[in-house]
Amino acid sequence: MHPLDTSTSHISNSHIAKGYELTQAGDRYFDGLVDKFSRSLYQAPRGELRLAMLDYLLPQMLRLTAQPVLDVGGGLGQLSGWFAERGHAVTMAEPSQDMLAHANAWHDERCAAGAWPPEQLRYLAAPLQSLPQQAPGPWPLITCHAVLEWLGEPEQAVQTLASLLAPGGQLSLMVFNRDALRFSNVIKGNLQKALSDQLEGKGKRQRLTPISPVTHDEVCLWAANNGLRMDAVAGIRIFQDYLRHPSAEESEQATLLALEKQYCRQDPHWRLGRYLLYTFTKPKADV
C-alpha cells in the first residue's frame, strides 16, 4: 500500500450525523461523512493525483529531519501516516470522532504490518482553536492541509498556527484555491455564480464545497501579519480539473502526473492549482 493511501475497510455507514450543520464557531466537521469524504476525495483519480503530488512535493519543500510533527485537522490520517513512516513522531489533531476512528484503525493496520512502531503516533480529538491549550509545543513542524477552507475564521487560524511554531519551525499549509474554484465554475457554465463571486459552500447536508475558499494574496497577507516567511509554493491539480475527457488509461494518467510535476511550481501554472501548497518558516529571534 502506498504510504499516503487509505483503505475503507473500517468505514461504517451506521453513524450518520443528523444535520451536517456548522459548529458554533462556524466550522465544518465531517462526522457522518467519512464514507462520502473518502470516496469523493481519495478513491478517485483526483484524490490519487493529490496524494501523489504531496509525496513528490513534501520532500522538496520541507527540511525533513525526523522532527516531531503536529498534524492539524488530520482527517483520514494519510498525512500523519506518511510522516510516521519516515520516522517522525506525529501528533494528529482532528475534531471529528468519525475521522479519528477511521485514521486510528487504518494506522493500526499499518503498525501491524511494521510500517512504524505504535508509539510513533498519538491522537488528539481537538479542533484547531483548542491546540494552544492541548498541544502548545512549540513545534518544529506543523502540517495543516485542507483545513482553512472549512473554518469560519481562516485568518484567525493562521494566527493560531503561527503561535504554535517554534522559532525556525516550518508550517506546511495547503488550502483550497478560490481563484481555481472561480475558473472551474466558468468552465462548467456557472457564469452568474462566478460573476457574483458567490463561490462558498453552505456547509450543510453532504455537499463538499468549502465554506471559506481563500486566495493566494489572502494567505500571504495573513502569514506576513503573523511574522511568517514564505519559502515555497506549489499548485496541486493544476490541469486535471480542466480536462474535457478525464484520463482513463494508465499511460494517460502517468503523462498527466508528469505534467503536474513539471509545472506545479512554475508561474503562471501553479496559480490555478485546485489546492495551493505552501511552506512558511517562523524566523528565529535576533540574538
TrEMBL record:
<comment type="function">
    <text>Catalyzes the methylation of 5-carboxymethoxyuridine (cmo5U) to form 5-methoxycarbonylmethoxyuridine (mcmo5U) at position 34 in tRNAs.</text>
</comment>
<dbReference type="Pfam" id="PF13489">
    <property type="entry name" value="Methyltransf_23"/>
</dbReference>
<dbReference type="GO" id="GO:0008168">
    <property type="term" value="F:methyltransferase activity"/>
</dbReference>
<keyword id="KW-0819">tRNA processing</keyword>
<keyword id="KW-0808">Transferase</keyword>
<feature type="binding site">
    <location>
        <begin position="73"/>
        <end position="74"/>
    </location>
    <ligand>
        <name>S-adenosyl-L-methionine</name>
    </ligand>
</feature>
<dbReference type="InterPro" id="IPR033664">
    <property type="entry name" value="Cmo5U_methylTrfase"/>
</dbReference>
<keyword id="KW-0949">S-adenosyl-L-methionine</keyword>
<dbReference type="GO" id="GO:0032259">
    <property type="term" value="P:methylation"/>
</dbReference>
<feature type="binding site">
    <location>
        <position position="50"/>
    </location>
    <ligand>
        <name>S-adenosyl-L-methionine</name>
    </ligand>
</feature>
<protein>
    <recommendedName>
        <fullName>tRNA 5-carboxymethoxyuridine methyltransferase</fullName>
        <ecNumber>2.1.1.-</ecNumber>
    </recommendedName>
</protein>
<feature type="binding site">
    <location>
        <position position="94"/>
    </location>
    <ligand>
        <name>S-adenosyl-L-methionine</name>
    </ligand>
</feature>
<dbReference type="InterPro" id="IPR029063">
    <property type="entry name" value="SAM-dependent_MTases_sf"/>
</dbReference>
<comment type="similarity">
    <text>Belongs to the class I-like SAM-binding methyltransferase superfamily. CmoM family.</text>
</comment>
<feature type="binding site">
    <location>
        <position position="145"/>
    </location>
    <ligand>
        <name>S-adenosyl-L-methionine</name>
    </ligand>
</feature>
<keyword id="KW-0489">Methyltransferase</keyword>
